[in-house]
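Q: What would this chain look like folded?
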Amino acid sequence: MKWSEVREIYPNQFVKLKVLSSYIESGQEFIEDIAVIEPVSDELATKELLQSKGDELVYHTANENIVLEVRQDVGLRRLDYHENQT
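A: My prediction, written as structure tokens:
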């Protein structure tokens, strides 16, 4: 299903989606095809987003397109306290 169709069916609300196809360009992921899992109330949107896994997301239909920023996971190095004592 295309995002424009979802916006017509579920105007001005959050929906939980499964991404079926997308592409990455210039550090952004452009979502092309989706499946609607369920509409989500405003009160539960954050909770549903945090519980989403893998290719699921929660997005508001007020947005014309689904474009996500791609972030690389940055690992933190733990410095052992005893290594730096002289």
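The chain has two helices and four strands.
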